[in-house]
C-alpha cells in the first residue's frame, strides 16, 4: 500500500464500521477500513439480511398453504432447501458487493486483513501479502461479536449448529431443538418449523422473547404453539449426548426434573460475545467488562482518539444501533456536535411469524421505574386492512406516563409490525405526547391505524373495539 497515514482507521466493516467509514469520508476525512472476513460484517453476511431472505421464503411457503382462503389454487406446495439457501446467499453477496461500491464511491480505502492496535495512533494489519502498519489520528474499533458457546453445548456444525450453520444447513432438520428464545433463536425456530421441522424451543426464562412486554410474549407463544412448535419455559438444557450420524439426546431440566429428549439437530442461540481478543485493547488502556468494551455515551473508550461502536460496545446488539453510533462518532471526530444515542428509543424487531417489534419500556419495566402508567391495547381483528390481508391475529400495545402523556413504550406482535414500529420511534424521538398522537390523522385503510387506536385505547377513546 502506498499511503499508510489516515485521519481515521476503522477496524471491522460491519454496519457499525462501514457506516462510520462512509460518513467520515463524506465529512472530508481520509479514511481506511480494515476487514478480515466480509464487507458488511455479520449483519449483511451472517445475520440480519440472509435470515430475512430465508424467512421470506418461509412466509411465501406458509401463504401458499393458505391459497384456498384467498380464492386461489396451488398444487401441492413444496420447497427446495438448497434453492432457498442459494437465494439467501445471493442476497447477502449482493449486499456485500454494494459495500465495496460504496467504499469506492466515497473514497474509503478498503483493506482486507486482520487488524490490531500497535501503540498510540498505530494499527497493524496482517494481509495475504504480509504485515504493515497504518498511522491514524483516530481509530474506531467495530469488530462485532460472535455466537456464545456454553460448555457441553458447543456447536460442531453437524448435530449442533450456531447461526452460521443454520444459515447454510447441511440438511433439513426433522426434529429440531432450539436453545434460547431470543430474536435469533425464535427466527430460526420459525423458519424451520414453517418448513415442517418438528421444533422444540427451550427457554431458561419464564417466557419466550423474554425482553419483550409480557403480553406480547404470551401472544407470540400462543401463535407459535398453534403452528405446532413446542415451547418449554423455565427449562434448561444441561447436557447433549451426541451420536455422530444419528442425533442428540438432550437432558432438559424443568420443574426440578430432568427429561431426556431426542433430536436430529440442535441450534444453540444463547447469546453473543464481543470480539475483544487479540486486538491489543487492554495494552492500549481500554477497559473491558466481560466481552464488551466500556465506553461513554459518545462511544469514547477513555483512550484519546480511540472509540468502540456496535456489538463490541454492548447492548442493544442491533445493526441500526451500530450504524447510528458509527455516524455519531464520525461526526464527533469531524468536529461536529452529534447527540448521544438514546438506548430507549432504539426499536427491536424479530422477524418470526408473527413478527414482533417494540421500542421503549414494557409495562412492567415502566412500573418498576416508578411511572404511573396508562396502557392501551388494540387487537388486529378490529382493523379492516388486517382482516382484508388475512392477517387478523395480532396486538398493538402502548404504555404512557399517566402524569405527562409521554409515550414510554410501544409493543406489537403481528404481520408487518417490524415496518410499523418506526412510527412510534419517530414519536419518541420528537417527544410527542398522547395528544399529538391522538390528533394525528392516519391513512385508511392501513395497519398503521392500529397504532392510532392503541393510543386512543390508553385514554379510553378507541373507536373500533
Ligand atoms: C442470525 C442473526 C440475525 C440478526 N438479525 C438482526 C436483525 O434482524 N436486525 C438487527 O438489527 N440486528 C440483527 N442481528 C445483529 C446484527 O447482525 C449485529 O448487531 C450487527 O452486525 C453489529 O454490527 P457491528 O458493526 O458492531 O459488528 P459486525 O457486523 O459483527 O461486524 C464486525 C466486523 O469486524 C470484523 N473483524 C473482527 N475482528 C477484526 C479484526 N481484528 N480485524 C479486521 N476485521 C475484524 C468481522 O469480520 C466483522 O465483519 C442479527 C445477528 C445474527 C447473528
UniProtKB/TrEMBL annotation:
Chain sites annotated for binding FAD: 52, 311
**Localization per Swiss-Prot or TrEMBL:** Cytoplasm
Q: Which organism is it from?
A: Celeribacter persicus
Q: Does the keyword Acetylation apply?
A: no
Q: Give the superkingdom in one word.
A: Bacteria
Q: What is its main location?
A: cytoplasm
The catalytic residues are 444
The reaction(s) annotated as catalysed by this protein in its Swiss-Prot or TrEMBL entry are: N(6)-[(R)-dihydrolipoyl]-L-lysyl-[protein] + NAD(+) = N(6)-[(R)-lipoyl]-L-lysyl-[protein] + NADH + H(+)
Q: What cofactor requirement does the entry state?
A: FAD
The name this protein carries in UniProt is Dihydrolipoyl dehydrogenase
**Cofactor: binding comment:** Binds 1 FAD per subunit.
Q: Name one GO biological process term.
A: 2-oxoglutarate metabolic process
The cross-references to SUPFAM superfamilies, in alphabetical order and at most eight, read: FAD/NAD(P)-binding domain, FAD/NAD-linked reductases, dimerisation (C-terminal) domain
Entry-linked Pfam families? Pyr_redox_2, Pyr_redox_dim
Amino acid at each position: 500500500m502506498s499511503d499508510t497515514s489516515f485521519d481515521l482507521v476503522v477496524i471491522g466493516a460491519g454496519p457499525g464500521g462501514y457506516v462510520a467509514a462512509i460518513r467520515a469520508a463524506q465529512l472530508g476525512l481520509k479514511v481506511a477500513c480494515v476487514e478480515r472476513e466480509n464487507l458488511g460484517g455479520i449483519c449483511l453476511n451472517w445475520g440480519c439480511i440472509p435470515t430475512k431472505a430465508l424467512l421470506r421464503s418461509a412466509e411465501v411457503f406458509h401463504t401458499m398453504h393458505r391459497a384456498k382462503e384467498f380464492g386461489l389454487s396451488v398444487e401441492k406446495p413444496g420447497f427446495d432447501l438448497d434453492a432457498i439457501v442459494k437465494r439467501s446467499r445471493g442476497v447477502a453477496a449482493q449486499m456485500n458487493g454494494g459495500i465495496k461500491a460504496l467504499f469506492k464511491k466515497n473514497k474509503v480505502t478498503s483493506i482486507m486483513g486482520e487488524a490490531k492496535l500497535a501503540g498510540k495512533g498505530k494499527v497493524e494489519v496482517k494481509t495475504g501479502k504480509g504485515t504493515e502498519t497504518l498511522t491514524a489520528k483516530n481509530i474506531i474499533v467495530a469488530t462485532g461479536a460472535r455466537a456464545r458457546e456454553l460448555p457441553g453445548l458447543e456447536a460442531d456444525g453437524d448435530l449442533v449448529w450456531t447461526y452460521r450453520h443454520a444459515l447454510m444447513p447441511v440438511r433439513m432438520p426433522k426434529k429440531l431443538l432450539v436453545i434460547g428464545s431470543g430474536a435469533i433463536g425464535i427466527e430460526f425456530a420459525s423458519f424451520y418449523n414453517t418448513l415442517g421441522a418438528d421444533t422444540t424451543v427451550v427457554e431458561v426464562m419464564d417466557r419466550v422473547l423474554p425482553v419483550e412486554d409480557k403480553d406480547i410474549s404470551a401472544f407470540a407463544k400462543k401463535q407459535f404453539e398453534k403452528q405446532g412448535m413446542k415451547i418449554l419455559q423455565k427449562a434448561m438444557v444441561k447436557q447433549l449426548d451426541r451420536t455422530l450420524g444419528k442425533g442428540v439426546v438432550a437432558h432438559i431440566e424443568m420443574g426440578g426434573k430432568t427429561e431426556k429428549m431426542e433430536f436430529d439437530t440442535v441450534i444453540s442461540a444463547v447469546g453473543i460475545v464481543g470480539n475483544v481478543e487479540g486486538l491489543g485493547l487492554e495494552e492500549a488502556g481500554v477497559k473491558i467488562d466481560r466481552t464488551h468494551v466500556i465506553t461513554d455515551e459518545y462511544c469514547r473508550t477513555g483512550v484519546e482518539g480511540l472509540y468502540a461502536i456496535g456489538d463490541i460496545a454492548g447492548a442493544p446488539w442491533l445493526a441500526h444501533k451500530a450504524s447510528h453510533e458509527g455516524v455519531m462518532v464520525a461526526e464527533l471526530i469531524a468536529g461536529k456536535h452529534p447527540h448521544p444515542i438514546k438506548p430507549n428509543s432504539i426499536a427491536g424487531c424479530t422477524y418470526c411469524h408473527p413478527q414482533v417489534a417494540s421500542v421503549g419500556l414494557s409495562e412492567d419495566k415502566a412500573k418498576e421505574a416508578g411511572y404511573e402508567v396508562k396502557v392501551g391495547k388494540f387487537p388486529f381483528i378490529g382493523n379492516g386492512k388486517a382482516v382484508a390481508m388475512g392477517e387478523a391475529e395480532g396486538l398493538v400495545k402502548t404504555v404512557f406516563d399517566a402524569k405527562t402523556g409521554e409515550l414510554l413504550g410501544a409493543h406489537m406482535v403481528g404481520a408487518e409490525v417490524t415496518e410499523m414500529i418506526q412510527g412510534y420511534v419517530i414519536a419518541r424521538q420528537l417527544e410527542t405526547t398522547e395528544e399529538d398522537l391522538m390528533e394525528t390523522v392516519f391513512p385508511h385503510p392501513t395497519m398503521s391505524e392500529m397504532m392510532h387506536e392503541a393510543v386512543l385505547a390508553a385514554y379510553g377513546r378507541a373507536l373500533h373495539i
